[in-house]
## 1
Amino acid sequence: MLDVENIQLTFGGVKALAGVSVHAATGKITAVIGPNGAGKTSLFNVISGFYKPNSGQVRLAGEDISALGPHARAYRGMSRTFQNIALFHGMTVLDNIKLGAHTNLKSGVLSAGFRLPSTRREEDRLDREIQRDVIGLLELDHVQHHQVEDLAYGLQKRVELARALVMKPKILLLDEPVAGMNREEKREMSRFVTDVRNNWNTTVLLIEHDMSMVMGISDHVVVLSFGKPIASGTPDEVRANPDVIKAYLGGAEEPAANAA
Ligand SMILES: Nc1ncnc2c1ncn2[C@@H]1O[C@H](COP(=O)(O)OP(=O)(O)OP(=O)(O)O)[C@@H](O)[C@H]1O
């Protein structure tokens, strides 16, 4: 589904990514892990089109999308959540979720402004679809009319996930989905991500520090260290890999070529 080939990205003298390739297979959960500064966030920003790499290619469902910006990638079925909560306060859960669908609506801003009958029909259809698919699946029924800022942290993260899903993405990019959560919230988020994949066959790519989440739900894990892939495989393979253990224990040395 997603093929990231040989990405090089430098910031001044710092090589943030030095030849990173990642394949996220259709309907699978792929995780990118690595110690602080390994290049995970940079890789996500390259994949979603926020950073332009020095070289390398990003392909989505076979199409080279390397030259496209974030909106064009979203339109092609790439959706992401962010590390920090990015919801609109003063709005309900349902309205926040609906914001994720604006590019799916056929009616333009003008007709929406005049509330033409066709726009209202489209909104009604969208409401029904959101209720049926997203709100039900993510168990947000009981809070859909609440203001988002009144919700507990874990629920707000779930609303963000819902908003990312409204577009029915081909691939869902999750940027540290359980950061800052308590154990119960982490367990719930893991279950919901797995449910989404199981129900819709969505391809999921996530970056995450929480090892129990990564090892619990991933089909495939890629490990970065100092901007390079050092291992990949099943959670069990990666866990047992001596290079990975060394990187996490702080024994790995930065390659001389990476020095600024
Ligand atoms: N905008 C930037 N300008 C300059 N250097 C940057 C920038 N973003 C990242 N870097 C550098 O690129 C390298 C990779 O950083 P990145 O944030 O991608 O790692 P990470 O694995 O996401 O780290 P963390 O787990 O701490 O979020 C680091 O050396 C970082 O200092």
## 2
Amino acid sequence: MMERMRYITAGNPMRMAKPILWAVLANMANMLPFGFMTVAVSVIYAYFAGERTILPMQFLWLAWGGMVVCLVLVFAAEARSYRATFRSAYESSAEGRTHLAEHIRKLPLGFLLRKDAGELGHTMMNDFTQTENAATHILPQLVSGVIIPVLAFSGLLFIDWRMAAAMLAGFPVSLLILWGVSRLERKLGQSHSEARIAQSNRLQEYLLGMKVIKACNLGGENFQRLERAFYHYMKESIKLEGALGPFFLVAIAFMEAGLSLITMTGVYLILGGQISIPLFALFLLVGTRIFDPLSVAIMRLPAFKYDAMAGERIVKLLEQPAMTGTSEPPNNHDIRFEQVTFGYDESIVLNEISAEMREGTLTAIVGPSGSGKSTMLRLIARFYDPQQGKVLFGGQDVRGMDPEKLLKQMSMVFQDVYLFQDTIRNNIRYGREDASQEEIETAAKEACCHDFIMKLPQGYDTMVGEGGSTLSGGEKQRISIARAILKDAPVLLLDEATASLDPENEAEMQKAISRLIEGRTVIMIAHRLKTVVKADHILVLDKGTVVEQGRHEELIRNGGLYARLWDLQTKTSGWKLAGEREAVV
Ligand SMILES: Nc1ncnc2c1ncn2[C@@H]1O[C@H](COP(=O)(O)OP(=O)(O)OP(=O)(O)O)[C@@H](O)[C@H]1O
């Protein structure tokens, strides 16, 4: 139970201590009127049974007064408990969500990429909502379901153990049934949550991929995947309710059998003159009061466990080790790979790579598709850490550096530009939060964006649609160049666009890139060799190893892979070598 409390409070069970304490007090106060009631009933019974000659009205008024005081106490404690429960639950969610969002940022990208797109969002929103539900709506019922019977049973045990035993005789059988189905319950609960997450993943995939679906005419297949996910969830829900429901009903029936047992035992004991009728009435009264919260608790327990599973996903995510490293990156920006071996899974993508990218120079990485070019950039930015060898930044292993501080030293212009659903101005401002409008415009001008931005309906205040769908690929990439110019980091990681741009866009893009790389340490993935002719150093990658390196002329002279790729590209596109000298880089 303690573990589940940890789950529903995102790892901080002590948060619920106060609400539970108030709930216990409220339940205790709730039981007190029974004492007054029994005393009052005994006195009234004695009068009508002829055991008393006068009805002591003063005494009765006192008992009724006591009941009213108890009601006030119950109200006060319940109000406190109610407030404390909701406050703790929602505070724990808000803090938990913030903490998780922060933690996710520090996790290795590799871990995040292994997750399905909707899964993290699901944990962030739905799983927290489920834990809120567990803490606010189910926990108080469970507390009452335990406290009321325990208090009542202890009190009644004191008065007459036989009646008390009869009252809870069926309870051990109920517990046994609940314990027996708990494994099945967990298994079904888990497949049900998986089906629920899969359903939201498929839905997200279907909606986000609408463009691709339309382009590739995949509508049918993707819709079927979505439909299958909906029906799978439906089946899991029916299985969960249908398979477990009867067990819980039987458990409740066994427990409620206690009421019949009290009646039978009571009648025998009254006939034997061992208990009085008022005492019998007390047991019946309390009996009816404890079975209701107990039944509710039994019926709500599976929901609590199910919601706690959502909390378990949150806590597991919070317990994922974040990337380590605290040191500041040095001022020197030489980057070196020393015998670096890396793979996303078992297969090796980079194999004992050693390479040097010197400060203030432009290093180009070229090679066939899948040779590991982007992976090298990801290791420099510490999206991943290598399995063997070291990536050095300014002579120090990046693993010792604070990942966020390291990223501050770098700007990245990649092909898959993500624009936030925000204004163009703010999208550029992500490069540097405190940039002024003037600085944003200057960066936009240098990145050749200013003119097309000014033609938009609200200029810099134009909203960019989800994922930036209202701008062309070239425009989006120039926005990301403006961001990089604004960030003004000393190191630039650049993945040249492969998508063919129209000539005007291409020229603008090249102009923007040549401004961006000025005076920086640049590592650039080049897909078109004409852009690397003037690079200070070229690394030629093939199947995860550096097969050649040097300047363009040397590599052409070597007659190796680079020269072959060069031949292939110049022949297929009809480029002229002379013209290449004027290329942007
Ligand atoms: N996140 C990932 N998980 C698993 N494998 C990956 C991942 N990213 C890349 N790979 C694999 O690693 C290998 C190298 O990929 P990488 O993207 O570094 O190549 P690249 O040279 O940049 O290719 P391209 O020029 O086509 O972009 C490929 O076989 C690719 O399938």
